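User: Is it possible to get a 3D structure for a protein together with its bound compound? The compound here is magnesium ion. I've pasted both below.
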Amino acid sequence: METPEALKARIDPDRVPAHIAIIMDGNGRWAERQGEHRVVGHANGVRSVREALVGCREVGVKYLTLYAFSTENWNRPKAEVDALMDLLVKTVIGELEELNANGVRLHTIGDTDSLPESCRRTLLDAIAATAKNDTITITLALSYSARWELVRMAQQLAAAAQEGTLQPDRIDDATIAAHLSTVGMPDPELLIRTSGEQRISNFLLWQIAYAELWFTPVLWPDFRKEHLFQAILDFQGRERRFGLISEQVAPA
Ligand code: IPE
Ligand code: IPE
Ligand code: MG
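Assistant: Yes, that's possible. Here is the predicted structure of the complex:
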């Protein structure tokens, strides 16, 4: 494979996706392959998060959204869930200085009220401490699922309609987007999933309507900058037609 520098040099800086979302998958398999407990895979995934973040910053991506824990993941064995929550707290505390030094704003989406109190506190503190940074926003999807978010949106709109503050026939795309947890962010243009699985697993269903999808067999703990740059280069080679025909979107 080319070096990260060589790959980066081929990226067109004017057509870098503003928002990249990643389904970080394969930690458990990575660990099991070396006879280790699944949790070892999660711990080794932290370096990959760093690589993805640094790579995004280097090429000017403004939003990186990482699927870190789904609502369905609560049903995993308790020891694994506890270890993941522990890792989250330690990682956020450990990386805070680095985030601030690099202009990274931390944000979360999902039902974060359901997280253990220590996690919630750590996250809220880190979000407040990085709130003024504006180079890149890293969003952790925690206790997140797209259906959870869509149900919540429907409840909010129904309540507003009942109160008389929202007219049902005024509901449009923008109304819906404004009631999702990603409000204020552009939709992801590129969605990456590692570990060879080719599914969405309840991630950002509304927001990825026109995202380009990029799948790799690489397991998340092995994900490095070169994989990110490869994905961006692949993205730049695609024709995004948005329902039009090629002649309508091709540059004159
Ligand atoms: C992704 O890796 C991390 C989380 C879902 C929290 P997995 O833990 O799903 O790893 P595999 O898919 O079992 O290998
Ligand atoms: C999706 O991975 C959720 C996260 C990466 C946090 P899973 O490993 O939970 O998804 P499935 O079970 O393969 O669909
Ligand atoms: Mg998995």
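The pocket of IPE (ligand 1) is lined by residues 24-29, 69, 73, 84, 195, 220 (CB under 6 Å). Strands lie at 19-23, 63-70, 104-109, 136-144, 190-193, 212-215.
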